[in-house]
């Protein structure tokens, strides 16, 4: 068994080290980094548009390049989160919380470095996990039916309230607002249009990208206008680019925990990535000795979610390659690319096409290494970017955001929606309501509802289905325990003390 | 300057007047600028893949860029609405399918187009059929056993399809009406989740497109019970068609290109020929077959008749099952 594993890896590296594959891998990660850094241009449209290009490539080459775009974009997405508070995708929303605060304190360099190192480590571990445990882990995904998903999401949402570093009531309220926003659009079960007010553009729901860029990005830009010229100077203080020895010491435990968390959740289809990064942050806040610094620029608050989100990105390949189950839209597109090539993803791919499976696994490791080599020297350049005067930097960011959001559906409606959510974001920040729980509620809300209703339809309306299935019952009990801990008077008092300090 | 402008105008007017007088002359100068294909679905969708597959070939043959533009929203209704309102000059065409042209007009209230009046069908590109598959541990292994089980255990059989009122759901309802049984309907929002839940045994069986179902079928964790085409599929010659047990049952989808109504006939014919040529190139056929499609090669007239036929067919089905438009 052990020998066979090494043989497999050797085969994989012999495929991945072919010059052609290295070049396509580099092209993929370069393109991925670029689209990750440009706000609003995500990996989904990029991969979709490149699909026809891959028709002419061999399946292995095509997968290596597409995978490179995907995890390259995960890397690039955290760069904008840290520098300008604009998350590129759902999973990097959490990176904004402490990463942007670090940047405001002149510590953008260490924040970017920690995100690159954390991502690299998690990517390596995720790849090894993929190589070693793919088949048994994929079986686990099959155990998750509607009831299990519902309970997992309940657990995730309860955990999210721990995220907010302010009033618990406000955090719960924001999750609920998020759930409501997630409900806009056509109901899959009945086809009824909800909260659309007759606007056809709302039938498919409110786009996540527009909302996030509005609430985080535009509101940040507006908030900076209030400073009337006395713009915050991010960079002139202690301009160190690399993390200090203290930073290194503090970032390892969260990276390890985040990696474990991300690998476990990345296997699950659906919200794996976002649950992983939110969960890793919440966990770190509870267990870290520096928990009270979270939200004010704690390095752990960047390390844990970044590691988790990248581990989840690698782990999401497991169900795709072994069972043909896509755990997110990008994986669904990859399956599409394979099918066009005449390969149906599934357990037989590993046996019948070992060079594809192991070549891809090995190329992911090489790609992660390329990203870290590519990104560490770039940190200096990114930090320099912050010295560009606001009157040049912010209008260009606005233009990029508008182009990006327009490109998603080619409709001006989404641009207006983004602008509207910018104003909503300003209102939230005036009221001191954290937008992160809102995003989580919005992304998970539709899944929560869908799985709740589906589970009840399967059980013909009998709610005991949530308690008689062991995995589902386990998550619900865990959620209850978490709620008790958060609400328990003694702990609540301590919690309040902590917040009074900040 | 002014004088020259007027002369250009006069020349153009003359050209138009002369062109209108000679049949076939519209298509002669066509195309003189880029052609836009509006795809009402996100990139990666079946019609998107087809459009991007033939786009470069059309560009090469017609000598003008053919651009694919995704206008998503409202199950494809927004994009088709844009096509319906575009100028009927052959420079805007839309990627349609049975769903947004023949099903949605009956199941949805605010459709921004009249599928029969607002479009000129151009070319049918591909047809497909659905597959009926069940969890390996389900209490039935074959199609007749499935029907017998559903009749013996009213409402007990759980069936997954994509979205209520969608094409696979209507196909299932059609089977229920024709064969006479009941079941417990579990709507989903995508093939991937359906495949996972049938493989995991969360629901007993599913009705789905070939491409979406293929990974599940290849996994060995589900049984393919039947295909919904009139005859057996070349892909699975040993699997029966549902019609072998339920006479008269036939449920298939199709994809094709339409233009705004009023486009000159000869442009429609020219585009039809070029699209058919691009779709029937060996490498395109191979890619379509890999995702469970059958490439078509039919005339404009054939496509017009098909849309009329299916429009009436689904209208009747939606009334028969008592589905209320939303």
Supply database-style keywords.
heterodimer, A: 502 residues, mainly alpha, 22 helices, 75% helix, B: alpha/beta, D-Maltodextrin-Binding Protein, domain 2, 10-stranded mixed β-sheet, 44% helix, globular
Structure in words:
The complex is a heterodimer of chains A (502) and B (326). Chain A is mostly helical and 502 residues long. In chain A, 75% of the residues lie in helices and 1% in strands. Chain A has a two-stranded antiparallel sheet with strand order 1-2. Chain A is globular and about 60 Å long. Chain B is an alpha/beta fold and 326 residues long. Chain B has two domains: 161 residues, D-Maltodextrin-Binding Protein, domain 2 (3-Layer(aba) Sandwich), CATH 3.40.190.150; 116 residues, D-Maltodextrin-Binding Protein, domain 2. In chain B, strands 1, 2, 3, 4, 5, 6, 7, 8, 9 and 10 form a ten-stranded mixed β-sheet that branches. About 4% of the residues of chain B have low confidence.
Short characterization:
The complex is a heterodimer of chains A (502) and B (326). Chain A has helices at residues 2-16, 19-37, 43-54, 59-84, 93-104, 108-142, 146-161, 168-183, 208-225, 245-266, 272-287, 300-315, 317-323, 329-340, 347-352, 354-385, 390-409, 412-430, 436-458, 465-468, 470-487, 489-501; strands at 185-186, 193-194.
């Amino acid at each position: 068994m052990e020998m066979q594993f090494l043989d497999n890896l050797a085969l994989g590296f012999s495929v991945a080290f072919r010059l052609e594959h290295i070049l396509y891998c580099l092209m993929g990660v370069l393109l991925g980094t670029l689209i990750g850094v440009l706000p609003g241009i995500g990996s989904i449209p990029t991969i979709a548009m490149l699909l026809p290009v891959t028709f002419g490539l061999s399946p292995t080459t095509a997968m290596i390049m597409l995978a490179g775009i995907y995890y390259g974009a995960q890397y690039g997405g955290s760069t904008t989160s840290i520098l300008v508070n604009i998350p590129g995708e759902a999973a990097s929303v959490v990176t904004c919380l402490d990463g942007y605060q670090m940047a405001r304190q002149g510590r953008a360099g260490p924040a970017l470095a920690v995100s690159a190192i954390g991502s690299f480590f998690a990517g390596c571990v995720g790849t090894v996990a993929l190589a070693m445990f793919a088949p048994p882990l994929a079986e686990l995904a099959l155990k998750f039916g509607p009831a299990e998903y519902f309970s997992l999401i309940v657990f995730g949402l309860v955990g999210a309230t721990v995220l907010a570093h302010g009033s618990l009531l406000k955090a719960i309220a924001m999750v609920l607002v998020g759930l409501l926003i997630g409900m806009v659009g056509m109901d899959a079960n009945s086809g009824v249009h909800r909260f659309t007010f007759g606007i056809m553009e709302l039938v498919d729901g409110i786009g996540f990208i527009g909302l996030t860029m509005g609430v985080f990005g535009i509101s940040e830009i507006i908030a900076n206008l209030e400073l009337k010229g006395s713009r915050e100077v991010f960079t002139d203080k202690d301009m160190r680019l690399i993390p200090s020895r203290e930073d290194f010491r503090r970032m390892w435990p969260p990276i390890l925990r985040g990696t474990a968390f991300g690998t476990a959740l990345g296997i699950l289809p659906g919200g794996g990535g976002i649950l992983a990064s939110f969960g890793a942050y919440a966990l770190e806040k509870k267990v870290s000795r520096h928990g009270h610094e979270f939200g004010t620029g704690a390095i752990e608050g960047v390390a844990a979610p970044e590691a988790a989100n990248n581990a989840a990105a690698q782990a999401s390949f497991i169900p795709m390659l072994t069972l043909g189950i896509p755990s997110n839209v990008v994986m669904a597109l990859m399956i599409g690319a394979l099918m066009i090539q005449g390969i149906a993803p599934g357990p037989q791919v590993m046996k019948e096409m070992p060079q594809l499976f192991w070549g891809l696994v090995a190329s992911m490791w090489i790609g992660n290494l390329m990203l870290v080599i590519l990104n560490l020297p770039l940190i200096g350049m990114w930090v320099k970017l912050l010295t560009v005067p606001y009157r040049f930097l912010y209008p260009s960011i606005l233009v990029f955001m508008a182009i990006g959001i327009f490109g998603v559906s080619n409709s001006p409606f989404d641009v207006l929606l983004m602008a509207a959510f910018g104003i909503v974001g300003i209102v939230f920040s005036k009221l001191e309501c954290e937008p992160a729980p809102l995003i989580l509620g919005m992304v998970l809300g539709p899944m929560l509802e869908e799985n709740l209703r589906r589970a009840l339809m399967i059980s013909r309306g009998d709610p005991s289905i949530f308690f008689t299935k062991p995995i589902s019952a386990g998550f619900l009990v865990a959620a209850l325990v978490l709620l008790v801990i958060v609400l328990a008077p003694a702990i609540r008092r301590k919690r309040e003390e902590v917040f009074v300090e900040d | 300057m002014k004088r020259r402008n007027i002369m250009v105008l006069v020349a153009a007017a003359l050209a138009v007047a002369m062109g209108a007088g000679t049949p076939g002359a519209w298509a002669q100068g066509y195309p003189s600028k880029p052609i836009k294909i509006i795809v009402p679905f996100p990139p990666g969708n079946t019609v998107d893949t087809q459009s991007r597959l033939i786009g470069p070939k059309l560009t090469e043959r017609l000598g003008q860029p053919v651009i694919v533009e995704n206008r998503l929203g409202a199950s494809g209704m927004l994009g088709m609405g844009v096509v319906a309102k575009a100028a009927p000059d052959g420079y805007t065409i839309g990627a349609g399918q049975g769903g947004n042209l023949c099903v949605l007009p009956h199941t949805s209230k605010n459709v921004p187009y009249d599928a029969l009046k607002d479009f000129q069908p151009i070319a049918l590109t591909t047809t497909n059929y659905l597959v009926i598959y069940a969890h390996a541990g389900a209490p039935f292994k074959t199609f007749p056993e499935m029907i017998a089980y559903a009749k013996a255990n009213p409402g007990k059989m759980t069936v997954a399809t994509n979205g209520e009122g969608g094409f696979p759901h209507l196909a299932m309802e059609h089977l229920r009406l024709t064969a006479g049984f009941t079941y417990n309907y579990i709507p989903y929002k995508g093939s991937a989740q359906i495949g996972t839940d049938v493989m995991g045994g969360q629901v007993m069986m599913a009705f789905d497109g070939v491409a979406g179902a293929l990974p599940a079928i290849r996994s060995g964790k589900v049984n393919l019970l039947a295909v919904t085409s009139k005859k057996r599929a070349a892909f699975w010659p040993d699997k029966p068609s549902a019609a072998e047990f339920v006479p008269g049952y036939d449920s298939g989808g199709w994809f094709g290109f339409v233009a705004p109504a009023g486009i000159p006939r000869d442009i429609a014919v020219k585009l039809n020929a070029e699209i058919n040529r691009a779709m029937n190139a060996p490498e395109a056929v191979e890619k379509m077959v890999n995702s469970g499609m059958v490439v078509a090669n039919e005339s404009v007239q054939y496509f017009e008749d098909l849309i009329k036929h299916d429009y009436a067919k689904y209208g009747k089905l939606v009334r028969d099952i008592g589905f209320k438009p939303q």
